Amino acid sequence: MAKKTTLQAAVYCSVLVLSFATVARAGEPIGFTAIKFDTTLESLDLSGGPYPMPLASDPGNALGDSVEGYGFVDSTVLLTLSAGMATLGEACALGGGGVGVDAGQSECDFFPANPIDPMELDGDHFDVQSFFDVFFDITVTDVDNRPGRDFAGQADGASFTLTDNGPASVSTFHAATFDKDAPNFGLIPPPQSDPYIGHFDIVIPLGGDINGNGEDDKIKFQLASHAAGDAFRTFTTLPNGTVIDEFDSAAFLAGAVVDVSTDPPFTLGAGSSNNPAFSGPGALTGPTTATSTLVNPVVPEPSTALLLVVGLIGLLGCRRKR
Questions:
Q1: Within the chain, which residues score under 50 in pLDDT?
Q2: pTM of this prediction?
Q3: 16 Cα distance to chain centroid
């Protein structure tokens, strides 16, 4: 009976020692690991064109290509972040345990931001979801010298700015490999091939009747995508751990000028929503700055020697009990 009790005690102590080792390696992923970043778009300065915008008043459709009284005016566009509304976001990377991110999952809300050990995660595969709620200003300028191709009620060369539009919620999903030595561990920003895409219904009143049918008109944005260029990315890590990400961007937007009766469409940017163009006619491009702050605490990996010491202490304790 005494031998059996001694054997049970030895097993118990072995389990205890392994438990101590597991606690000491708190960063080691068990099942899955969720890594979270709080993100902010600090600046966005995209310009391009000319784009045909249905903003000329042509009730008789005399210009030849008008749509139900809307004439098209070649226009340049400047897209910037709103000065009065912050553009905030979040990124969540999930790895291990067969857990992945899919389009039906909302951010990282269901997963705790436990401490991570970069040494343990180096080289691991992660599925990353990232999103922003974008508030933006847009300035449209008439650059069309053709007769009659002027913004309704405005002189040739006029421009107007629509401010504080949004939020335009855009998100992306991509795969990444954890790199312990890379800024943001190589998890964000997403690659150029995985742009942020948003489907929404942002309506901006224009305060007038362009096509002369007695109905006030609005600009409506229905789709937008924003790609972070792979080339020329730079990263600056601040003392508090925040990373400043700087890169070139390209955007593609689809919208329409609408009233109750009609809605002639327009697009801003070149390429497509899945692949905004960074060059060529019509590209809507420019510099972008974002910040990212890791939410998870970072723990150093305990040395093998430290684990052995913990184990020996546990064994010595067990020997005393016997």
A1: 1-30, 98-106, 301-310, 312, 315-316, 318, 320
A2: 0.81
A3: 44
